[in-house]
Every structure is written in structure tokens, then in C-alpha cells.
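Exercise 7b. C-alpha cells:
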């Protein structure tokens, strides 16, 4: 029997969010999730720096510089980050991810088998810029869904 809790987007603060479809957070410093759980949405974690681990579906991944972690709905995860960690997090509803996924020329299905990717510095810098711009757009008092969608075409 599966007793692992499922946490939805509505469990997170609405700061830096678009109507429960897309949320942006920066995680700085030491953090841990001690009780494994699942989400009903996608999570993209872009690690600039840090050490620790991110366990996804029982596999423990070492956190390092310039990594992208992709978590699918229903995957069980927990983590422990040290004080040097800086990570940019996008949490995306299934519906919104479906729309964005069509615009990005990446084989997303590959992340289900290998959810952690180390990115070369040049590509990391570009991806980090897009995450930061999405975060900036989501913090505006008046949001434009068209701008968000255009920014999501990474």
C-alpha cells in the first residue's frame, strides 16, 4: 500500500506564481526534506552551487554545480542541501508543462530514466537567465501569460 503523501501546488505560497500553474522559488542555503513525498506537478531544479543529495524514486543523486534535476508528477523524492546551495526552482502544473513541452526541443522522456543532468557552463548560464527572467515576470503585479509562455520556450 502506498502511504506516501502527494503535495499539490496549492500547498506552496503564491508569491512568484501564476494562478497555480507555474511557481518560481530560489532556494539558498541548507535545506532538507526528511519525509519523502510526491507531487502532482513537475519540478525543475537548476543548481548553481551546492552539495548534498536529491533522492528520486529511491536513487540518491549527488548535488553538484550546474545541474538540472527534473521531477515528474508521482515521483517520490527527498533531499538534503548544504549551506553552499543555490538552486532555482520551477514548479509547473501538468497542463502548463504540456503546453511548454511542445515548444522545447528536448526529449523530456529521457529525464524519467536519468533525472539529473550536468550542463556545460555556457548552456547553464542561458538556462539560469531564463529561470531568473521567469521569476522576475512572476513577481510582477500584473502578469502576462503570453510573456510567460514566450519565456518558457527555452
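Sequence design result:
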Amino acid at each position: 500500500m502506498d502511504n506516501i503523501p502527494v503535495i499539490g501546488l496549492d500547498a506552496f505560497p503564491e508569491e512568484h506564481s501564476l494562478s497555480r500553474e507555474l511557481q518560481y522559488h530560489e532556494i539558498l542555503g541548507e535545506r532538507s526534506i526528511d519525509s519523502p513525498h510526491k507531487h502532482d506537478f513537475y519540478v525543475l531544479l537548476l543548481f548553481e552551487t551546492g552539495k548534498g543529495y536529491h533522492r528520486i524514486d529511491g536513487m540518491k543523486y549527488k548535488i553538484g554545480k550546474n545541474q538540472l534535476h527534473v521531477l515528474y508528477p508521482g515521483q517520490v523524492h527527498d533531499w538534503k542541501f548544504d549551506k553552499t546551495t543555490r538552486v532555482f526552482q520551477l514548479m509547473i502544473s501538468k497542463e502548463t508543462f504540456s503546453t511548454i513541452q511542445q515548444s522545447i526541443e528536448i526529449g523530456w522522456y529521457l529525464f524519467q530514466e536519468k533525472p539529473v543532468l550536468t550542463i556545460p557552463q555556457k548552456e547553464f548560464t542561458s538556462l539560469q537567465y531564463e529561470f531568473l527572467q521567469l521569476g522576475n515576470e512572476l513577481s510582477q503585479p500584473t502578469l502576462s501569460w503570453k510573456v510567460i509562455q514566450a519565456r518558457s520556450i527555452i
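Instructor comment: The first strand starts at residue 6 and ends at 7. The radius of gyration is 15 Å.
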